[in-house]
Amino acid sequence: STGETGPVTVLSKAFSQTTPEPARQTTPDPPRQATPDPAHQTTPEPARQTTPDPARQATPDPAHQTTPDPARQATPDPAHQTTPDPARQTTPEPARQATPEPAHQASLPLTVCAQGNQSGMHSAGEVQMCQLILPCHSNQLGELSTGQLLKWMDSTACLAAERHAGMACVTASMDDIQFEEIVKVGQVISIRARVNRAFKTSMEVGIDVSVQDVVSSLLKRVCVAYSTFVGKPTGEQRVSLKPVDLRGGVEELEHSLASERRRLRLSNEEAFSNLTLNYLTVRDKGAWSRGDAASRVSTELTRVESTELVLPPHANHHGNTFGGQIMAWMENAAAVAASRLCGSHPTLRAVDMFSFRGPSAVGDRLVLKAMVNNAFQTRVEVGVRVEAYSCEEWNQAKPRHINSAFLIYQLPNTEGHTHTFPDITFTTQAGERRYFAAIVRRRIRMAKKHILYSREEGSLSVPWDKSNQAYLGYNNVAGLTVLAGRQGWEASSISSKGGVFVHEDANLLCMKVEMKVQIPASHAYSLLSDLTLRPLWDKHYLSCEEVERGNEEETVYHIKCSPISGAQSHDFVLLLSKRQPCKDGDPFVIALRSVTVETVLPVKDRVRSEANCAGFLIHRSGPTACEVCYYTQVTSGVLPYVAGNLAGLSRSMEDTASSCIAFLEQHLLTTAF
């Protein structure tokens, strides 16, 4: 898909205004300086062919009236030509300012946005579009229509892709869109697109949208998105894209992450199938509660169907339907479906993916079908499907599925209050499938956010000293107790021996593993509180040695972990704090957190990682049985070991839990209790 002619004109004309002709700005015309009057007569300008001075004063040039120069009127030609006006060297010619071309007027916002750019420099392969938001671009709330923004984003991304490929390109998908800011009428948006990485026949284009307030010049990010484009050669030409020229640390980082994002896209189907199977198992085991169905809204009440006829203005320069226009129509249908659920005007906050499956052309009839799939308290997912018909297919009822997308809406906050969507229910088998598929997609979005866009925290370790061990131990145990007390854990997988649960609150991600073990709780406590035994059942632990011991309940360990996917090995320095129950019903507690010890310094061949809060709670469930719950707060150091589980690409946590259960039930107890 491609852009419209307007944005292309904006880009081409912008450089003629922001970078004026060097010859006219730096040095005057040499012939006019060397021989003033003759040169003026031999190469007359159209506006100066009537040379008599009185005539010029009697019927002055309109451009000269707008910016009059007294010196030029008092000494007409000689003084004016021998001593050029400095103002003419620093600003464009007045005549061109007085009557600018329409394209130059459209490109004015580019200058404004360039001033707001922090660096002021653009990459060689970058394409930028700027637009002043007018009422015709807005919705009923006076905000920039998301559909219009999607058109501009697709246009700019296509220009960047074609600039790199040197051939026509079409959109394959656009995903990972997170909207952070609302754009108002009168503001200026800047859309920058650049190819992050080129593969054999496809390339990833990164899109960055920012908004600038004209009055305050304050610049804010609106959204970031990633599009995949495919080269469209002519005739028998083969597509072989050239590598991207990297010119900085940011470009190198995006180049590296583009490969990881592509891997996730290609493995998305496998991850989706695995996670769907897990959630259906959770449902079948009765661990999924839907509450009172009578108070829920049926998804069938949100169904929307809209038909659009593709006209010539909707086509791109390839002759196909403009992809940005299709996305705009899809967003419109999705917004109607979401508003039917909440009875208000929700705001688009994210797009899971626009997936283009096939082309359509002028004359096609596009049928857009939208429906709410699931509601997650403050957010709702709407699915949209686009079917295309030619005139013959329309009569024969033979649709072509050309696009699908999943859009996430949120109700705007009013007076600091966050509004929630009504709970929903499904009444058909297809509705149930969409209901659980939305849960799986939310899980995958969560994994992407933490895997691809996790930020380095500050130091999580605290200095270890025997003099402050009482405080550190209390803080360690209290942190684990608070983590375990969180409400709303979501089951990820369930088995007869336990399950894996996930909890996300803002940017804090936590995981819990439940294990049902047929041994007394005191025996499990004795075995698990000795970390030197953990390499026997945890494949991620290469070794674990005691570094320093405080009292009987506080011990510092140095753990060396195995590398993940060929990456560098990690190590941890952890304080273990263990507590026995104070009364019946209380659990055994084994809390872990990172500390710094002078005797164990980081080494070059290992990455010193940190854990903020982790540990075990062991509950009695009978004389010879107990339930062991392992909790961990996911930090950047812990993330590599749980990323596969989050994305649905592995079952490493389930496998480790099974190994732990087998170890506890089979290992001979050698520690006195």
TrEMBL record:
Residue ranges annotated for the START domain, each copy included: 487-673
Compositionally biased tracts (Polar residues): 14-27, 40-52, 80-92
SUPFAM superfamilies: Bet v1-like, Thioesterase/thiol ester dehydrase-isomerase
Region span, Disordered: 1-106
Pathway assignment: Lipid metabolism; fatty acid metabolism
Domain HotDog ACOT-type stretches: 123-235, 300-415
Catalytic activity, as annotated: butanoyl-CoA + H2O = butanoate + CoA + H(+)
Protein name, as recorded: Acetyl-coenzyme A thioesterase
Organism: Chanos chanos
Origin organism lineage: Eukaryota, Metazoa, Chordata, Craniata, Vertebrata
